[in-house]
TrEMBL record:
One term of GO molecular function: endonuclease activity
Family assignment from sequence similarity: Belongs to the UPF0213 family.
Keywords recorded for this protein, A-Z: Endonuclease, Hydrolase, Nuclease
Entry keyword Nucleotidyltransferase: no
Matching Pfam families: GIY-YIG
Protein name: Putative endonuclease
Residues covered by the GIY-YIG domain: 1-77
Annotated source species: Hymenobacter psychrotolerans DSM 18569
Length: 96
């Protein structure tokens, strides 16, 4: 299971989600770009800037809820520690 954070090109919004297939989920987000009915589509938040792996769904969901409760500054610091340049992560080339 993955907990992940997406942002938009101007890094003004963050979207936190959980999935069992990160590659598939990123594709789903990018295919809805511009869909005003969906948060990620409305704000064009389809750039992966952070993710972590959790061994079980219960842990992933708990972590997602924890992150959603954090301040923006705390989320920014988490992302910066993991991905200092805030570059969109390509899962195929990410070295971590």
């Amino acid at each position: 299971m993955y907990v992940y954070i997406l942002t938009n090109p101007t890094q003004t919004v963050l979207y936190i989600g959980v999935t069992n297939d990160l590659q598939r989920r990123l594709y789903e987000h990018s295919s809805r770009r511009g869909d005003a009915r969906k948060f990620t589509g409305r704000y064009q938040a389809d750039l992966l800037v952070y993710f972590e792996i959790c061994p079980h769904a219960v842990q992933a969901i708990a972590r997602e809820k924890q992150l959603k409760g954090w301040t923006r500054a705390k989320k920014d610091a988490l992302i910066a520690a993991f991905n200092p340049s805030w570059q969109a992560i390509d899962l195929e080339t990410w070295a971590g």
